[in-house]
Amino acid sequence: MTGVPAAGSAILEVSDLWVGFPSYREQTLHALKGIDLRIEAGEMIGLVGESGSGKTTLARAIMGLVPPPGVIERGRVLFNGRDLSAQSDAARRSVLGRELTMVIPNPRAELNPVLSVGRQISNIAFYHLGVSRQEADRIALDMLRAVHIPDPERRFNAYPHELSGGMAQRVVIAIALVCSPRLVISDDATSGLDVTVQAQVLDLLQTMVREKGAATLFITRDIAITAHFCSRIAIIYAGEVVEIADRRRFFARPGHPYSIMLLAAFSHNPALRARWTRAEEIAGATPSTGCAFASRCVRRQTRCLNEAPSLRPLASGHAVRCHFPVEAQA
Ligand SMILES: Nc1ncnc2c1ncn2[C@@H]1O[C@H](COP(=O)(O)OP(=O)(O)OP(=O)(O)O)[C@@H](O)[C@H]1O
Ligand code: SF4
Ligand SMILES: [Mg+2]
C-alpha cells in the first residue's frame, strides 16, 4: 500500500492551465483559462462554481483525460511530479484507480451491475495492490465495514441494484479509497442523494480521506457544503479561479462579488439574497476585454469593462480576481 504522505508536500500542481474545445466554424471555447492550483497532502479543497464553469474539465485534465476534442492549450498539471497526459495509457491506468481516484454521482451507473459489490472492491485491491485473491477479499470486507455498510459479510455478495443509493455511494467511496490514494477527486458525488444521506456520505468521505492521509479535490455547485467539509475554498467562474482562501477566512471575509452572490444564493437571509441576486438582472453582454463577471456584477465600474482583473492577494493565502473586492472590516 502507498504510505501516508507527509503534510505540506504538493500532491498536485496545476500551473497556468488552459483547456480549449475547438468547434467547427466557431471560435474555440476556452473552458479553463489559466488555472493555478496547488493541493498539499491531507488538504480538502472545495472547488465551487456554477454549471459550465469548468469544474469537470479541470478534474479530467488532472487525470490526463481531457475529453476530445478538448486540448490542453497551455500550462501543465503535475500529479506527484508527473504529467499524466504524457504517460502511456497503461501507465496512466495504473496511477488512476490507485494513486488518484474519482468519486462521481450516480453510483449505480459507475458500478458493474453483474458483479457483487464485494467482488468489485476486491478486484481493485487484487489488480492494483498485487495481493492474493484471499487477501483482496479480506481487504474488501474491511472496506465495507469501514464505510459502515450494515451486515458487510452478507452485503459482500449483494449486487448494486440491491443497495440503496446512499449505500451504493459508500461502495463507490470504498472503491476509491481501497488502495490508499494520494488524491481523491469527488465531482458532485452526492448531488443525487437526499440531504441527510448526503451529509452522512460526506462525513464518511472526510473521515476516510483523513485516515488514509489523502488529499481531496471536492467539486460542487453547493457552496454551503464546503463550509463543513473543506479546509480551503476555490471559486471558479467561466474557467478562471476568481477567489481562493482558507475556509475560515473565506466564510468570514469573502472578497469577490461572485463569491458573495453564491453565498447569498444559499443563504436563508432574504434581504441578502435580494441584494446580490439582483445582479442576475443586470443587462449587457460580458465584455471580451474586461472582467468575465462584469455583466452580472453589482459592483462593476467602467474599469471592469476595459481591463480584465488578475488574481491578486488580499491577505496571506487569500487571493481575489477583482478590481474592487469587498473588503470587510475586521
Ligand atoms: N466534450 C466537450 N465538448 C465541447 N465542449 C465541452 C465539452 N466538455 C465541456 N465542454 C464545455 O466546457 C465548459 C466547462 O464544462 P464543464 O463540464 O467542465 O463544467 P462543470 O463546471 O463541470 O459544469 P457542471 O456543474 O454542469 O458539471 C462548458 O462550457 C462546456 O460546454
Ligand atoms: S472586476 Fe469589477 S465587474 Fe469584475 S467582479 Fe470585480 S467589481 Fe465586479
Ligand atoms: Mg461537471
Keyphrases for this structure?
single chain, alpha/beta, Rossmann fold, 8-stranded mixed sheet, 3-stranded antiparallel sheet, binds adenosine-5'-triphosphate, binds iron/sulfur cluster, binds magnesium ion
Q: Tell me which ligands are bound.
A: adenosine-5'-triphosphate, iron/sulfur cluster, magnesium ion
CATH class label of the largest domain: Alpha Beta
Largest sheet: 8 strands, mixed
Look at the structure and name the CATH superfamily of the largest domain: P-loop containing nucleotide triphosphate hydrolases
Question: Helix count?
Answer: 13
What letter string, H or E per element, gives the SSE order? EEEHEHEHHHHHEHEHEEHHHHEE
CATH architecture of the largest domain: 3-Layer(aba) Sandwich
- The helix content is 25-40%
Overall 3D geometry? globular
Counting structural domains, the number is: 3
Q: What name is given to the CATH topology of the largest domain?
A: Rossmann fold
What oligomeric state do these chains adopt?
A: single chain
User: What structural class is derived from the secondary structure elements?
Assistant: alpha/beta
Unreliable spans are 1-7, 277-285
Using only CA atoms, what is the Rg?
21 Å
Q: List how many beta strands DSSP finds.
A: 11
Distance between the termini: 46 Å
The fraction of residues assigned to DSSP E strands is 15-25%
Quote the average pLDDT.
Answer: 88
Tell me what the structure shows:
- With 330 residues, this protein is α/β, with parallel strands linked by helices.
- The chain has three domains: 9-99 and 183-191 and 215-242, Rossmann fold (3-Layer(aba) Sandwich), CATH 3.40.50.300; 101-178, no CATH class; 253-324, no CATH class.
- 35% of the residues lie in helices and 23% in strands.
- The chain has helices spanning 55-62, 89-95, 107-110, 117-129, 133-146, 152-155, 165-177, 195-212, 223-229, 247-252, 257-265, 270-277, 302-306; strands at 10-21, 29-40, 44-48, 71-79, 100-103, 183-187, 215-220, 232-237, 240-246, 311-315, 318-321.
- The protein has an eight-stranded mixed β-sheet, sandwiched between helices. It has a three-stranded antiparallel β-sheet with strand order 2-1-4, with helices on one face.
- Strand 6 (183-187), helix 8 and strand 7 (215-220) form a beta-alpha-beta unit.
- Residues 1-7 and 277-285 have low confidence and may be disordered.
- Iron/sulfur cluster (SF4) binds at residues 257, 291, 293-294, 297, 299-300, 304, 309, 322-324.
- The site of iron/sulfur cluster has 12 residues, from loops.
